[in-house]
Each structure stands twice: as C-alpha cells, then as structure tokens.
Specification:
This is Phosphate regulon transcriptional regulatory protein PhoB. This protein is an alpha/beta fold. The protein is built from 8 helices and 12 strands. It has helices at about 15-25, 35-45, 60-70, 90-95, 110-125, 160-170, 175-185, 195-210; strands spanning about 5-10, 30-35, 50-55, 80-85, 100-105, 130-135, 140, 145-150, 150-155, 175, 215-220, 225.
C-alpha cells in the first residue's frame, strides 16, 4: 500500500522541519508549507489523507482556513489536526467547532502526535479499509490512488485522477460542465467551463491507449456521462 499523504501547514521553520522529519521517519509522505495560500496550492496537486494545521498563520489564520475547507465538497472530508500553543479549553472547543478532528498543544512529543494521527486516521477510515471499484475494465484502488487497466498501471495527473474517480463513483449519470467543476475542482475554483472539455480530451486520449475511451460519452446539449454501455 502506498504511503499516507500528510500536508503540514506551519509557519515556524523549526517546527515545520521537525514535523516533516517525524512523519517521514514513520514512512508518511509529507508536503510541508508555511501558510494557507501555499496549502491551497498544494491541495490542487494532491489531496492529502490528513492535514496538520497550525492555529496561528500569517494572513489567513489556520482556524479560518479550516472552516473554509470543511465547507468545500472536494476537501471537506479531509481530517484535520490543529497544532497550537493555545491550551485553554475554550480555544480547543473553538478549533473543534470549525471541523477539526483533533487538537494537540505545543509542546508535544512525537509519540503523542503519532498516536493522535493514527487515531484520527482510524476514525476517518483513511487507512483502515480497502476501496476498489471496477467498471468497464477500469480498476480504481481508492486507498492507493491507483488506476489500472488489464493489470497495467495508468499514469494520470492529479486532476485526471480526480475526474476519473468521480466518473467511476457516479456511473451512468449525466453531469454538466458546471456540475463537474463543482465536484472535481471545487466551488471555490475560478476555472472556465471549457477547462472541463480540455481534461476530458486528455483523459480520453489516455484511455484510448487501452481501448477504453468510449466509456466517457458526450451527451450533446447536456454534458458528459461515464458508462460501459454505448
């Protein structure tokens, strides 16, 4: 199974480096950034299994970014552990109220942090059960973020993967370009609808290498549908 992806959002260099080291030693795949803007960009490249988020960040606070994230359909289910120097009960409640899954107060030991991470991942089922979908000869392994056809690994960009994952989990239904933008890119994304057409063409071209391009069908005047039935 592939490594668990963790996004660390912490503005203090020393703490960010320490967190990265601890997580990498535990065989996690780590992306570490210093603020909410960089974190949002990181999400466009890869959706993590867990976010470690500092309470106080420059510009947009960690609490406010978490609140926005939890309202986003695309990212709302990503578990979040808040990291902060605040220890008062009222602040802990505030962090959990915005949707954080747990809360750890500085200073903390690596052992405590890893215990909290494992507990949150178990509760969220991000690393507890397998998920496998197969339609039209296309196999999607949700846990490993892996797509294969005829036992061959299919190389996809993060956007192509999210698009194919959405289609595979919502087969035989027609979706407009606007709906696909909301579901795959997120409501907060300022992307033109024709971008959907571009990625559909790219995905079809990749699937054509395995004679599977016809599963993504154009429904004239409406949008697109994923179906193994022509």
């Amino acid at each position: 199974m592939s490594a668990i992806n963790v996004l660390v959002v912490e503005d203090e260099d020393a703490i960010r480096e320490m967190l990265s080291l601890v997580l990498e030693q535990a065989d996690f795949s780590v992306r570490a950034v210093a603020d909410g803007h960089q974190a949002q960009l990181a999400l466009h490249e890869l959706i993590p299994d867990l976010i470690l988020l500092d309470w106080m960040l420059p510009g947009l606070s960690g609490v406010e970014w978490a609140r926005r994230l939890k309202k986003d359909k695309q990212y709302g289910e990503i578990p979040i552990i808040m990291i902060t120097a605040r220890g008062e009960e009222e602040d802990k409640i505030r962090g959990l109220d915005v949707g954080a899954d747990d809360y750890v107060t500085k200073p903390f030991s690596p052992r405590e942090l890893m215990a909290r991470i494992k507990a949150v991942l178990r509760r969220s089922n991000k690393h507890g059960k397998g998920g496998r979908i197969e339609i039209g000869g296309i196999v999607l392994d949700i846990d490993e973020h892996r797509v294969s056809i005829a036992d061959s690994h299919v190389l996809l960009s993060p956007t192509e993967y999210r698009l194919l994952e959405f289609f595979l989990t919502h087969p035989d239904k027609v979706y407009s370009r606007s709906q696909l933008l909301d579901q795959v890119w997120g409501r907060s994304s300022f992307i033109e609808e024709r971008t959907v057409d571009v990625h559909i063409r790219r995905l079809r071209k990749i699937l054509a290498e395995y004679d599977r391009e016809e599963v993504i069908q154009t429904v004239r005047g409406f949008g697109y549908r994923f179906s193994e039935s022509l």
